[in-house]
Specification:
Elements lengths: L1 E3 L6 H12 L2 E5 L1 H4 L6 H15 L3 E6 L14 H14 L10 E7 L7 H6 L3 E3 L5 H11 L9 H10 L5 H12 L1 H4 L16 H7 L9 H14 L5
Parallel strand pairs: 1-4, 1-5, 2-3, 3-4
Helix pairs in contact: 3-4, 6-7, 6-8, 8-10
Organism: Diaphorina citri
InterPro entries: AAA+_ATPase, AAA_lid_3, ATPase_AAA_core, ATPase_AAA_CS, MT-severing_AAA_ATPase, P-loop_NTPase, Spast_Vps4_C
Protein name: Fidgetin-like protein 1
Length: 236
Amino acid sequence: ILLFGPPGTGKTLIGKCVAAQCKATFFCISASTLTSKWYGEGEKMVRALFAVASVHQPSIIFIDEIDSLLCQRSDQENETSRRLKTEFLISLDGASTLDDDLVLVIGATNRPQELDEAARRRLVKRLYIPLPDEQARCEIVTKLLRNITNSLTVDDIEEVGRMTTDFSGADMASLCREASLGPVRSIDLSRIDALDVRPISIDDFRDALKTVRPSVCQADLKIYTDWNQTFGSGRC
């Protein structure tokens, strides 16, 4: 499975949730985990990874930023990188595992267009993780503030959802963090007391929106939607 989309939309979190729901052993891998300065060690670690995952099945191998590990091959790259990619592609094809092994490989990337064609073919389920819509943004605000004193009404939360177009989940978390500092900034810090801190209000969110901006532009979103139309399997 390949999860692709803008940064901050929860691709890594989805991988962890899948492992928790399936009660599977979770292996979180990055490019630095499998690279080594010693010749041939990278390929050995790839084989060891799939061997251990097979022993502890059902298991999920999650590869964050998979484009850094399986980017397009070229004549300029060194032999070590090429050998590592070849070994990983062979393992992805299931050559080193049995047919009935319960090993799921999930890759996450913000740059799907840089993936090698052979890796793209092996990641048969390619799911687009879009930015949260207005309803999802309202739910994110509600969950992030559930343990924080606030005076927001349902209408206020809906207003925040309308004002945060093109915000990712990570952007919404930054916005709530900035808004939560509003009550602290409004009191005298020389005589601060927990009882003096007022609840978070909609005005704090309006002030926070002056400094917190969305991290994804429309040009980037078009790249993801175009790639999804060409190679994607739909939305997650």
